[in-house]
Amino acid sequence: MDKAQWRYRKTQIRGAEMSHVLPSCFADAVHTRKRVSGLTHSFYRYPARFSPLFVRAVIESFTRSGEMVFDPFMGGGTTLVEASALGRRAVGTDINSLSVFVSKVKTTVLNTRDLTEVRAWGNGVVQNMNLRQKTPRDSEWIQRGYQRNISGKNTWPIRKLLEMSLATLDLLSTEHQRRFARCVLLRTAQWALDCRKNIPPAALFRKQFGAYVEEMIVGAKAFSEAVGRGESNRAVCLHRSAAGIEKERIFEAVGSPRLILTSPPYPGVHVLYHRWQIQGRRETPAPYWIAGSLDGDGASFYTFGDRKERGLEGYFESAFAAFSSVARISNEKTAIVQMIAFSDPSWQLPAYLKTMERAGLVEARMSVMSNAHDSRLWRDVPNRKFYADRKGATMSSREVVLFHRLA
User: Cys bridge to 146: 67, 141, 248, 265, which one at CB 3.0-4.6 A?
Assistant: First the structure.
């Protein structure tokens, strides 16, 4: 980002002034269509991911080195990765154990020895991937249903290669290394199984796994070099709801975040945060098995409620609880930036903004950055795809950036 091009802007918050710096290319970062890449961002395709370019632009605009950035719905950890790489304190929460697993892996600093051991492990796995080899089955995971819909005629070879590879994790020295190895398998399995009509053969899975090992080692090295070795640079990933977050000790010790940057669940939008879809609409919780983390909740748990509920009352009450806690950890200097989409923005956006007001947060209109009649900044997401049979220009493929402050 060219800092020489930055322009100072002044924004009104319903009569109260807020002054800060926004880069002139901020809008370009919002509308970018570049693929998510760089550092550790490509480790896993978590649904509704932020663009790292957008996240970096927001963090550089609203914070300085050493200040705290908090994401109450951290998802795939994009906010935490960028905040850590930019020298900020990064804290995130999520109710999804898969999100916490992925975010921890993406924000873990690995040294040369770690990466060397992972590379040696990966090379060994590639050489020993053989479907004729006897592999022990994990009966506990099977009985709990975590291998559901991945043992069919076309998918059982992928399942067996995964079992074979997971059985070798004890060859690695540390838990950091084992989590990284699981994430490589998770990424390869997602590539092979999720929303695919044609499942790749074992030989192609083996080749892709080897390529991901090398690619992810490069990303982990780049992230570790950007973050450095200081303990204060370590991201904190908490497996919990944002509601009640004010009780966490980290906010007592460090104080209020300078920036809260997040993408909350989308009202009325069907998003599979916790399942993969196998050759159509058949769902599997296999990613939790691969990550070694449990999941016992349905889709509505991860999306603030049933998307078909009349008036989405459950959604808005959950959002109110979460953002009330966000307001409690904020102060007059805290900026709250959200990117969100709606299944029907005509009534859901006003209801959402009213919920923010109830929680103690007031909207800031960025008129100098707006591209719509409502003085807000909207973006279209190319090829948005939340489940197997619908993608492209749906209502949820249009997102809005919302700015709030403590009332």
Answer: 141
